[in-house]
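User: Before I run my own analysis I want an independent prediction to cross-check against. Here's the chain; please return only the structure tokens and, at the end, one sentence I can use as a sanity check.
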Amino acid sequence: MVVFVGGWIGAAFIPRWWAQRIADQVNGSIPAGITLGLVYGFLFTTLALVVVLWAAGKRRSWKAYLAFGIAAVLLAAPNLFTLGIVLGRGNAAHAGERTLDVEAPGFRGASLAGAILAVLFLAGVKYLLVSRRRARTELARARADANTVSDTDV
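Assistant: Structure tokens:
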């Protein structure tokens, strides 16, 4: 019951509050809206995904997974607030959408672009780390084979 009431109050308050915080930072400037959206989208998606990837890196207790999950959600909160405004159907979401349209132009789209760039960036970093590990393993195997061949030749 408490969660339901808290969610109901949050749905009525958070979209308006978040849109106003962003509007105060952007102040109606399109370049500022795009820049802030890219920074928020990239930064908070990257931080949340790094926490998730770090947590998934080894076996942990369910309490540790829960703590990492909560941390990831808290780090992703700015993006989740913006997503709530974009996808929300309530009056607060519509009010937040109007506020962002007028006072923070470009923020919503740039926030999405920043989040997509963060996912691509982390996928690229992960690919580089995995390929480097694979190359080191193959090099060690090739050196071991070369040593074995040279030992049998003597």
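Sanity check: The mean pLDDT is 90.
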